[in-house]
């Protein structure tokens, strides 16, 4: 074989010099290049077949089909009762409360988180220690304990007042009038949320390059402007996915406010369930689907918020689903046209 | 520090005066008593081996670093400090920021704001510091981008530009505050060799326009061409300074000769 190595590896299939050689040196006789005699560069590479992947896909499809079939056909789920409950006013009122508590706690929690994160990054050891302790304490105490503790807060402190510390008060409030169930729920969730948000925000701020702080300082930009316009927008790129994670947790945590006698989505279903014990499963399904919808909406918003804060971070923005669909369709069209031409 | 030295400072016509500056991090001494005077309109090039303290010196001038001993004044005004009787007191953060806005600074790694367009990078500071309205700042930014040859990149984001283009934007950004003096910290060190020329051309243009420049660089050829004075620093001290023809071509000190033989 050493006398004609060039022929052995060439694809032109001319057999003039290989006649005398043994068959294993010839190219496998497949219906590709040789017959068409197209130049190699013009040929399409045949993709590798992956039978394992096809088998795995088939198995998964069968399992998914079984689950869906079970969900639809099993009378245990009572889909007619599900349809009955899904838009009931009680459920929708609960949904409203869930949304209200979530929105207020998310905003207050994030604002509190920013303040605590700044405290954690402060040069004052006292501010650092206090904010660290806050995060440590609130992350350690179960949310349900915080809520029930706040619920009983008015028994501990009858009035709240604003005035000189340890001195005379200017205003005072009767706490039992101020602390409605809604206020207790929002405060409890915000306190808890702020502790987690603080760490998310702190991580985001730390992810901003030191050079950005220096450039902002060297230009003499005012301190507040540096934070709001230079550091925070860049930090938000890494804050967003983490905070959305937090937010989705918060949406579900709101189901705990039922224990401070607020009838949110879960609370409404729970109450209806004790009145109509036969409908407990469809009611739980109603709740599940509503939470799924809320989470989906948040995920869509997350995509666009992340895309907004990615400006400048990547050379080109990631495509929106609509753009992807258009690109996919035009890609498909050109492929079909090419196949048809062949 | 005595009252006499402070009074002599106030009458001085220097653009920059560095007076006996010491700077250390823990036990590591970076600057060991630097005295330097830069006259208005002068181009000063600082050279020296890495770790010699040249970047730190530049950062002390606009108070990105606080000297442990000594002081700096720019156009007769103490930087980061104020005089009260015969004492020196630290200035408020706001006052220091105002002082910095009069001193341009160009970084080795450009440090453009990646989330702002090129135009907004240049126009941000005059607006934020209240020097110009938004429309006027944008007009100025367009003029400056024109001057550095990047008028067509106004709407691009920094990461869409080459290193040389980014550094030219950074220079335009520094110019937007109309500083009396501009400090360059190794402006071409992060660039590919073929992009160095375009940045040096912009700096050359500035030098000709009579702006006071202090440049830390390793480009010895450029130093020879542009500098009114070359300062050689080693071990946190000024070893030698003078016109390029003297320091670069007839160095008096062994250490300067040694350094130049390595970089030329």
Which features characterize this protein?
heterodimer; A: 342 residues; MetI-like fold; two-stranded antiparallel sheet; 15 helices; disordered N terminus; B: 264 residues; alpha/beta; 6-stranded mixed beta sheet; 4-stranded antiparallel beta sheet; transmembrane (chain A); transmembrane helix (chain A)
% residues in beta strands of chain B: 25-35%
Q: If you consult CATH, what is the topology of the domain at 88-270 in chain A? A: MetI-like fold
Number of helical segments with 4 or more residues of chain B:
10
Work out the oligomeric state of the chains in this entry.
heterodimer
- What structural class is derived from the secondary structure elements of chain B? alpha/beta
The strand count of chain B comes to 12
Low-confidence stretches of chain B: 1-11
Number of beta strands of chain A? 2
Rg calc of chain A: 32 Å
Largest sheet, strands/sense/barrel of chain B: 6 strands, mixed
Note the beta-strand portion of chain A.
under 5%
Superfamily (CATH H level) name of the domain at 88-270 in chain A: MetI-like
State the largest interface: A-B, 24 and 32 residues
Mean pLDDT of chain B: 91
| Share of helical residues of chain A | 55-70%
Q: What is the approximate shape of chain B?
A: globular
Structural class computed from helices and strand pairing of chain A: mainly alpha
User: Architecture of the domain at 88-270 in chain A, according to CATH?
Assistant: Orthogonal Bundle
Report the order of strands and helices of chain B: HEEEHEEEEHEHHHEHEHEEHH
